[in-house]
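Bug #77: duplicate submission created two jobs. Keeping one. Sequence:
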Amino acid sequence: MNTERLPTTIPEYLAHLRRSLAGADPALIQDALYDAEEYLRSELAENPGKSEAEVIAAVASSYGAPDEVADIYRDTEVKVQTALRPPPPPVRKSAWGRFFGVFADPRAYASLFYMVLALATGIFYFVWVVAGFSVSLGLSVTIIGIPLLILFFGSVRVLSLVEGRIVEVMLGERMPRRPLYTVRGRSLWQRIGDMFTDPRTWSTLLYFLLMLPLGIAYFTIAVTLLAVSLSFALSPLTLLPGIELSVWMFGLNLPEQTPWLLPVVSLVGIALLFATMHIARGIGRLHGLFAKHLLVKTSQYA
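Kept job's structure:
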């Protein structure tokens, strides 16, 4: 390896690594930058008598040059995503096959569960942001106000990682698995200023606020469609002896007045159930992109 071409400082190494990963997933870049800096900083701490250039040259053979690390991360990402991705459903050529084949797609079930779960997470995120921001801002005139506000912003970043893991596991959208990469060597006040001026901090707050109306909408859509489709699909059971239930539609009590319509209603319910799974899968994909846009800082990696 030609050590003359290696960066001589950790910021240069990270900048080179960022350029080498240009075009990769922003979440992957965030993880790679964080891992590289943590490794280089730990090696530098273990060798206090060496300069950054000497440490980088020494670890290049084990950790790798920026271009090599970028290639390793790209290859590893493909292997990890292949291993974690659920088995794809069989490819169906006909429109009917694609419509009814949604029941074989695990991502549809995960997206449906996320829509139901979003109500709870949306309420929690909204309350956390509103209460935390208002209390911190209200106490900003006191001695504990500013530290409390800093802790609040730190907690928002932690919650961002948690939400990212939920989104990746349930919706399949690649999200960061490491905290946001930040430039080291800056003073405490500079880091605090970076936290306040970082657009991702405010976009994360916006995401958490929007999760309440989105969670309500997702929960309502999921529960309503499931309730209607299942009630329609199971409506013929009202004809069984000992079951006294009424199915009203268009002002008619179907079991008593038009029992011959119940099989038709059941078929409509079954079709609606399949449509519900398609809707859930579509909402899951859209929300994954929405979460990535607001929770992952992309301008840093342009």
